Amino acid sequence: MGRAFGPGRVNLIGDHTDYAGGLALPMAVDMGTTVDLSADDSGRLRVETDAPVEPGWERYVAAVMFEMDLPPGASGEVTTTLPVGAGLSSSAALEVATALALGFEGSDLELAKLCQRAEERGSGVPCGLMDQLTCVAAVDGSALLIDFEKETVRTVSLPDEATVFVVHSGIDRQLVGSEYADRRLACEAAAAAIGPLRDATLDEAMALTDPLLSRRARHVVTENLRVLDFASAVAARDLATAGDLMLESHVSLRDDFEVSHPALDDLVTRLSSTPGVHGARLTGAGFGGCVVALADADVADADIPHASAGMWRVRPAAGARRLV
Ligand code: GLA
Known about the structure:
The protein has helices spanning 58-67, 90-101, 108-123, 130-137, 177-194, 202-206, 211-235, 239-256, 262-272, and strands spanning 2-11, 23-24, 26-39, 74-80, 142-147, 152-157, 162-168, 277-282, 290-296, 311-314, 321-323. It is an alpha+beta fold. The termini are close together.
């Protein structure tokens, strides 16, 4: 029997870059999932991992157990303070906490990769490593600059005068599997033509003859640059520049990568014109879910435009851990 906690995450900038060997700058949030579980042959959680993809949360537990070579059965309790299905990586939090509760031994990277495989097995979505690695490796008070080509993580501390809001669009981010896989395939097709997108230039992306692939590649190439510029701006406490980069990221995700939704665009527009808010963008896979905003710390919650689906002021939290 073991007990463990995994936090959710919000990505400040750098979306749809992880599976293309790019850069992202996420942070764990101070909400997460606690798993109190033991592997148990007669357990209630008897889930076959090759069932059709329409995942209930139990599938993620079963998938982690499969990846850990444990027989499929467990008893225990799972509780969460995360909104489920909002795009704050509730599944990654569950996977990482499950693996730790069930006695996973190994490095942070091994844990994140095991949970990434479990995510794909559980959901059918060929996701990248960002969510699971953030959940595992997060550091209290900092965001993480992750390089998915080198598989390295650097902390970027957020200045005290900044705060982060997560606003739910009210659109549930469901069944994005095929669209997500389609975007990933487009990046792979572009890379087959011009080489790894991480090393590609804007000119090379623009020279792709297929206009759709060209736009997809342009998003990845420019987004990687924005991540680096954002990290520098935050380090220099230049929130105005950081916010502008978030808006550019949103436009790129909307127009070049086409993963936005009118409800997300509307929220970004309203947040951007709110005094004290420096920038906002869709966060995570897109197609619904949440918008993240960077604001001055003294902005009141009541001044942040949001729908009834939910709004959270989040702070960068520590990564997953075993609990005694
Ligand atoms: C989802 C995936 C991540 C990443 C984001 C988009 O959250 O699980 O791996 O690709 O979408 O940045």
